[in-house]
UniProtKB/TrEMBL annotation:
Transmembrane annotation, as ranges: 6-21, 33-51, 91-108, 120-142, 162-185, 192-212, 242-260, 272-289, 295-316, 323-340
Taxonomic lineage of the native organism: Bacteria, Pseudomonadati, Bacteroidota, Flavobacteriia, Flavobacteriales
Domain of life of the native organism: Bacteria
UniProt name for this protein: EpsG family protein
Pfam family, one: EpsG
Signal peptide region: none
Record key words, sorted: Membrane, Transmembrane, Transmembrane helix
InterPro entries for the chain: EpsG-like
Amino acid sequence: MDFFSFPYLILILVYVVIYFNENRSKQENNRHIRLLCAFIFFIFFGFRGYVGSDWFNYEYYYSETTLNEWTVVDYEIGFSFLAKLFHDLGLTYNMFVLFITLIQTFLWNRFLKINSSQTALSYIVLISIFPLLILDLLRNFTSILIAVQAIEFVKKNQKIKAAIIILCSTLFHATGVFLLFIIFINANYFKGWLLITLLFFGIVVYILQINFFNTIVDFAGSIIGGRMQYLASTITESDKTYGLRFGILEKLFIVLLLLINYKRIVSNKLIAPIYFNSFFFYCFILLYCSTSETLINRFSLLFFWAYVMIVCDLKILIRNRNITVVVIFICFLKTFITFNRDIYRYSNNLFTEDSYYERKLIREEAYENRE
């Protein structure tokens, strides 16, 4: 039997070793821990081959783009400019991915330096829970990581600086603009009664798989008519359902844990409002929009960082150090299940050159099996 997830499990194991060392070491060693974690992440993912699915679309765009030609698809000018520049300099697509990963690693490392005391565990949760971001959503991940640098200024109530940084993130993906919301959710926690109400109806929508999103889009398209009606129909017809997933139980467990400890969290500010509120944004999008894979991949993942921060600090709520061991075990399990597919077969360009045509065939077979 093929064991495609083996390299990823080894990667997680390395971070687990670093995690235990991190929690035993003195404060002054944290910088070395962060740099080591960042370096490993960069080498593993920066030099990856054609892993995942969206590499095919990115590679095609990269092969055709040039600084001499700008089209309607180049509206995210930060990403487009870098792709065109690297292409015109004669650099390969793999070199472009390496550079983008370097940017992502730097930004993630900076975010953790300012906002987290659990560096290694943050990498474990990121890799095991959000592989789609790292491997397939090149633009989205970069955009989000740029935007979350604004949290530092949101906490200091420097809203203009925060807004400028978030708007800059749209140069890599337009959905970054929605993170402007975090500027307004830092002062106060969402009300408990509101969260409970939204959770109840969200669970109903999720279980019954009520597709109200497509209904709204179709209705808006029919009202506007013309080209917009056509575009609305293409969105609703091509979109796939995210469906009922076992992983939602893990999110619901954390949601219930936060609600049970709501008064203690608020009175003692155990979790900063910006992380607390953003985490509920993430979970409610999963519940209410599970019939739209597009919405899940584009909007819930905007708040992945809040999920990482809260999971890494669960021991604050559950006063038992063993909870971290449970989190690591779940991450191991999810890594094994998620990456144990041919489409995620790992290859590293430092050791071997990946075959474009072989990986293209694997990708096509994965999409056929999915349908």
